Amino acid sequence: MQAHHTPPAGPLSARQQAIVTISALTATGDLPHLHDALAKGLDAGLTVNEEKEELVHLYAYCGFPRSINGLNTLLKLLDERKAKGLKSELGKEASPIAENGSKYERGKKVLETLTGRPEPAVKTGYGAFSPEIDRFLKEHLFADIFERDVLTYQERELTTITALVSLGGVEAQLQGHLGIGLHLGLTAA
């Protein structure tokens, strides 16, 4: 699928830099600076739907309040741009998700693609202790969210890694996502 193509590694593009800044400011709740970052993101080639998708993606990592505040900030920016006669490229909508198989199995497959390794057959740690959270992660995060094709897997991981760094105190999850980012072609530089 083209939406999940991994471009070659290298320095961050202007689009990727915008994604990083938007993610960090959303995660920390810095709305005045987020407003400016969203404007710069549109100027760097992000579409309205790509920025919206990033803000929606972030709720899984920094909560609905921060995500909704980000969406409201984007709405305010778009109203301001419209009042000034500035065009904002809407971009493509998410394609319908093919619901072949259970959401759990689809999410598991996405996670295996992201990590490059099969999920263990026997759950351990939090997955064994709380099968519900394992199901929520697979069915909702990796099926409902990651299967959406507005952002690539690499762009989603860049968003996620930045949010986790910005939040702090989530080193285990950060290490996991750094590994995924490297697998998807992001570099440590």
Automatic annotation (TrEMBL):
Protein name listed in UniProt: Carboxymuconolactone decarboxylase
InterPro entries linked: 4CMD/NDH-1_regulator, AhpD-like, CMD-like
Annotated Carboxymuconolactone decarboxylase-like domain residues: 131-188
Pfam families documented for this protein: CMD
TM stretches of this protein: none
Molecular function in Gene Ontology: peroxiredoxin activity
Organism the protein comes from: Hymenobacter polaris
Domain of life per record: Bacteria
